[in-house]
Amino acid sequence: MQFVSVLFFLAIGVVLMYYLPLISKDLLQITKQNEEIKSLLKKVLDNENKK
Length: 51
What we know:
The chain has one helix and no strands. By secondary structure, it is mostly helical. The longest helix has 49 residues, at 2-50. The chain is rod-shaped.
């Protein structure tokens, strides 16, 4: 029973080590997109305020 639980936690560790870089890369891409959206919205709001 102990061997099965060790294998289970080992499998969870391997899955996390495989997927964490993929998730962090996606989060970095989303963060960059959010910054671009913020800058575009700021430009639009500045243009609206000038009118």
